[in-house]
Amino acid sequence: MKTLVHLSDIHFGRVIPAVAEALLADLAAEGPDLVVISGDLTQRARRGQYRMARDYLERIRFPKIIVPGNHDVPLYNVARRFLRPLTRYRRYITDDMAPFYQDDEIAVLGINTARSLTFTKGRISRAQIELIRRRMCPIPDNVFKILVTHHPFLPPPQNQKLPLVGRARKVLEMVAACNLDLLLAGHFHMSYAGGSHSAYRTLARSVLVIQAGTAASSRMRSEENAYNRIDIHNSRVTLRVRMWNGESFVEHRTRHYAYNTDGGWDFPASLEPEASTSPSERSLKN
Ligand SMILES: [Fe+2]
Ligand SMILES: [Fe+2]
User: Fold this and answer.
1) How is domain 2-271 classified at the CATH fold level?
2) If you placed Cys at 80, which of 3, 61, 74, 114 could pair as Cys (CB 3.0 to 4.6 Å)?
3) Is the overall model pTM greater than 0.90, yes or no?
4) Domain residue spans of the chain
């Protein structure tokens, strides 16, 4: 069995210190094989925010896969935004824009979906689709294959109209053909999960999609700070959403998913994901 911790949208510059410290303690107790961090490490991509992010990440002493989010590209400094959008990310976080982890049970690839031309939306280029194919297709199907992005492939149950990552369908077709199992992302600051068939009925095979809330920032939308613990064992996945209760992170809900040889990662209607709280009235510019 492998245990992943999936964090997202920490947003240094808007971090709640007590939550961030409790999160580190919770992670140490979980003892994951890998920590996945799906972007928006900073609030405004400022140098001081990146320094805080770097110092914090150094305290997470587990293997890590990290991708940037739209907030990790400078917003107001237009010259930097277009000419050197991820220079600070590369300097303070990692120079690897396609991080990859593999062991005998899981293979995890991270892809950058943040773009200078759009403030909040994200996209996957044709070259990145080819990169994913080259990297993930040759891996045997008995290895559980995971793709990490900041921008999501599946809308939250509360709002099916929110914009998804650009070229989502093209990527999902390739993901189905290469037998990927799981997509991890953040951006909406909401925890939810589902099979890709729930939004893309005609795909040859359904992939499991798990979204993380904001781990430690005050930019909460419709739920408290949260992160995901994901256990992977023999074509079965257990997702535990751990949520802040004002004092510590506690288990908020647990879901089990199993691989179905007919159509991939999906589950009966009774196990469909549910919104953890009522729909948010606030805007979702994450
Ligand atoms: Fe975002
Ligand atoms: Fe965010």
Assistant:
1) Purple Acid Phosphatase; chain A, domain 2 (3.60.21)
2) 74
3) yes
4) 2-271
